[in-house]
Amino acid sequence: MKTAIFGGTFDPIHNGHLTIARAAVSRWALERVLFVPAGRPPHKAGATNAEYEHRYRMVELACAGQPDFEASRLEAGTENSYSIETIEKVRAGLAPGETLYFLIGADAFAEIRTWRRWRDVVDSVEFLVVTRPGHEYEPPQGARVQRLEDMRLDVSSSTIRRALALGKSVDGVPASVLDYIRENRLYGA
Ligand code: ATP
User: Distance between alpha carbon 90 and the CA centroid of its chain, in Å?
Assistant: First the structure.
């Protein structure tokens, strides 16, 4: 099954994530996007404000009713989550030789060389990189990279968290996710 991994902190998931995933599905005829909330992302130590179970549940709510979007628990319970481990788990369920895709924003891709076993990551997947203004990157040699041109999505989890903490109105998250945030008083909402 033509699969892309889409990892993130998803703290919280927002419409930008969903728009990117939907665009990738139509552009590359993906059959499945696995949204994988990071257990405890090594790159964002201390920056996660909602517990894993909340972040996972919000991803699940955001994916509801979209059969090609799947919330994945592959990084549940991991002290540190490393993409290579997730990739190896997903790969184990694919046909031999099948291409595995990895959807990622240019800001995250620019740091690929800091990832654990990044060479193995590069050898294991084909990257679908969402370009973002101000985020240039030099793909490592041998990396298979296709670009999804910038969609100018002016939304990020951090701006959403800030707005919630200030009691401001929030757009850019699905209604079901916003309800969940308020019910559980996440991010100071
Ligand atoms: P934060 O604001 O907390 O840094 P974020 O909004 O970037 O969070 P993440 O969960 O860290 O959200 O992002 C997951 C993936 O989605 C990353 O690969 C990131 O580059 C990409 N992404 C997030 N928002 C956008 C956006 N507006 N445009 C393009 N890519 C995005």
Answer: 15
* 121, 157, 164: residue to mutate for ligand 1 pocket, most atoms within 8 A of CB: 157
Rounded distance from Cα 156 to ligand 1 centre (Å): 6
pLDDT tens, residue by residue, 58-114: 999 999 999 999 999 999 987 778 999 999 999 999 999 999 999 999 999 999 999
> What is the band of 44 on the pLDDT scale with cuts at 50, 70, 90?
low
Domains of the chain: 3-188 (3.40.50.620)
Task: Report the predicted TM-score, pTM, of the whole model to 2 decimal places.
Answer: 0.94
Rounded to whole angstroms, what are the CA distances from 6 to 44, 81, 108, 159, 163? 16, 14, 12, 21, 25
88 exposure class (CB count in 10 Å sphere: 0-12, 13-18, 19+): middle
Compute the distance from residue 9 Cα to the ligand 1 centre, in Å: 8
